[in-house]
Amino acid sequence: MFTGFQKILAACIGHTEEETDQPDDVQRDDESQTESEITTDDNSVDTTEPTDTTVSEHTETEDNDVPPPLEESPPADEVPTVPVAESAETLTDSDPGPVDETTEPDRDEVSGEMSDAAPSDADDPPQSSDAADPISEEDAVPDTELVSPEQETEDSPQVADSEVPETETEETDESENTEAEPERPASELGIIEEVYDFVEMFEQSTVSGTEQASASGIDRSGGVTKPAIFEHPTPTEAAKIDYTVSLPDVADQEKLFLHFSVGLRDGVVFGDEARQPGGVKFAIEIFDLHNNSDLEVTADRCFEAVSTECRWQENGIELTHYAGREIVVSFLTECNVTGNSNYAWALWGKPQLRKLKQSDLRKRKRDAEPELRCGIAILHYSDERTQFLEFNEPTSTAVSALTDICIESAVSEEPPIKVSLYTALPKLEIVSVGATAAIVAAGEDFEIQCTLRNIGTAPLGRADEVRLSINGVKLRRGRPRQTVRELEPGEETSVYWVARRFSHSTVVAIAVSLKCQTAAGEARDTGQGSVAIRPTAPKLESKIVKELHTYTVEGGSVVIGNKNLRVVFVRG
Fold first, then answer.
1. Is 376 within 8 Å of 192 (Cβ atoms)?
2. To the nearest 10°, the Cα dihedral for 495, 501, 505, 506?
3. Contact present, 452 and 485 (Cβ < 8 Å)
4. Collapsed DSSP state (helix, strand, coil) of residue 173
5. Tell me: the pLDDT tens digits for 163-189?
6. Is residue 569 scored above 70 in pLDDT?
């Protein structure tokens, strides 16, 4: 009968603790052991003590232990069918062991039924694989399998599918670009050697048939300034300026070119109805004096053009076949419209005879290719046409980038088959060497100055090396060798050294050597100077005289002064 009371009490506790979590295995074992002990000691306890003992035991269990899943009450209509009653009826006082064996399967069964009946518990992740019911495991396995393939479909397959077309597209694009882009033209590098400047040599020319002719270092067409020759024709005849030039010989990989531009001087009023501009015709003729001593032979007209706007048109003529000969170069202009010389302001921009020599160019060690700043580009086309372009970049530019710039600036839409780049060169000369002070006295350190000038047509590039070395004196500080980094054409710069004092008066000879390494090779120059070391400056009287006075001091020096100024004249 006590056993029946225990069952009723357990069922009540199950109803009370319906929402409590499942206990762990240790708690289940303790509860089973407690029930077994109560069942075993039932016959040995007094009629009054069992009630106290039983209440005490179950009170402690109720306070400290969570009911097992077996005791968790399912829905009300399923309480009579709970397997606990059947297992409890089979219990004996001497064999409590089957309680655990019977309870464990029932617990699993009840737990499975509650998982189906209580969806809120199914949302919680299982504590272990043993605690999950078979149905949940079967449901979980497909979920995992579905999620993983979804990730693979979203990540791996889709990425693969997307990457393959992109790769194919990229390859297709690259092939299309390769097919679309023309082959890069062949390149040729070299240097420029100035042979003859027609603007500078204008005074040696012969002028005929012009209204006005002159040469200027600064003239302008289209807003661009260049040295130019101005040649205004008459309304009735052509103007002509003749130069007699002896051409140098050329070696292999060398060519002679006459490079120039033509255009109208800025200021032409094209809207002047009373004096409507008609433009100017330009022409160049070459007469070979070596093979044509008879002046009746016709000259070779090698260039003709017409200009009707204020804009430079760049051109070039190859004269290599005249190398080593004396020729007459004639610049001719005439009215484009017969009898209309209005605003016939013809300009020959920077006409120069140049030798172009193909050669390898220097580059800095860390650069992949040479860098150029100014020079001439010749674009060669398949129909044997050539186009001349003078380039003058603000900074040194790599050959590949400069080639692209020249191609973009080309007039022809047809791409060139070859681009020749010839760089202009700097050329340095020593202007002067001497002391910075007007008088250098014995016993005093003094400063020496060397002045350089760039007489070339290009600035010093980053690949150029210029070194100056001083000889003949001992230095107080600094090194005898110095470098020059930047120098524009026509500019001057100075370098300085501080020399040790001389104890007595003497004349010191100073030599400065210049070594300039450019794309053309190595060039050297030497500058000479002298410094007169004067006797030690005389000691002046400390007494100041207000009035102007003159007196002689030790060593023959003469002093002139007043209260504000004293001048010492040292005998040389």
1. yes
2. -50
3. no
4. helix
5. 444 444 444 444 454 445 557 888 899
6. yes
